[in-house]
Design a protein that fits this description.
Helix content is 25%, strand content 39%. By secondary structure, it is of the alpha+beta class.
Length: 138
Amino acid sequence: MHRVIDQAVQVRLIATAPSSHASAPAVLHYQAADPLAVRMSFPAEISLDGTAVDWAFARELLDEGLRRPAGRGDVQVRPSGPERTVMEFHSDEGIAMVQLQTADVRRFLARSYRAVPAGSEPAYLGMERDLAELFGAA
């Protein structure tokens, strides 16, 4: 069974100007068929070029970022006090920073770990099973 988890969240967009904190919708996605990754989707109306934006990153990165700064690449996550988590998304066009309720992230991660427990991700990749089915050995 390919379990899919979607959770709508509200994010605060953080810009350089102090008065430019806007609230916006986003969606966290998790699929048991891709057990190591989490995706975060932002609607077109909040992007600079008017297109929807999706970011993919490690579930482990999101989990670690709730406790301490995590990530050195395109996606970085860190706590911002006990109730908020900050995510940074780096691209050639610049950096986008958003702030989320930590409780929302914890709830999403708990659901993903119920679907695919930590450490059992390789069993959900299904490559061997899919090959066996393809060649009739299953």
